[in-house]
């Protein structure tokens, strides 16, 4: 079975392979400030719970992609455009992949944000559910 740790590894692999993502983080948003020096663009993933149904588990996440805006906001439009494209790249990678995790949503809403956090960043966020197979077989439960 593809586990929560495997999904984390999938996010980290996607972030590391993307040429425009310079930092990756995982956890609550409050941890961004404590994660050390951030080299932008940053991809941050927040776990948002899970849902189980027959034969599979859907792990819910909020993915944020952000970059720093220069003083005077002279690059804000460029940052919005770039971070949206990066987030779309990440979603495409999750949608069309050969892993054991599946992004099944046909429609995903992207939300823009500006001037967030102490670093004055701008970017985009998306809520997704990643599905993995889960055999609901009591016989396979460790005793």
Gist?
The chain is an alpha+beta fold. It contains two helices and six strands; from the N terminus they run αβββαβββ. The chain has a single domain (4-136), classed as STM4215-like, CATH 3.30.2000.
Relevant terms:
single chain; 143 residues; alpha+beta; STM4215-like; six-stranded mixed β-sheet; 2 helices
Give the secondary structure arrangement, pairings included.
Blueprint: H1 4-17, E1 23-26, E2 42-53, E3 56-68, H2 76-95, E4 102-103, E5 110-116, E6 121-133
Parallel strand pairs: 1-2
Antiparallel strand pairs: 2-3, 3-6, 4-6, 5-6
Molecular structure report:
With 143 residues, this protein is α+β, with helices and mostly antiparallel strands. The protein has one domain: STM4215-like, CATH 3.30.2000. Helix content is 24%, strand content 36%. It has helices at residues 4-17, 76-95, and strands at residues 23-26, 42-53, 56-68, 102-103, 110-116, 121-133. Strands 1, 2, 3, 4, 5 and 6 form a six-stranded mixed β-sheet that branches. It starts with a helix and ends in a 10-residue tail after the last strand. The model has no long low-confidence stretch (mean pLDDT 89).
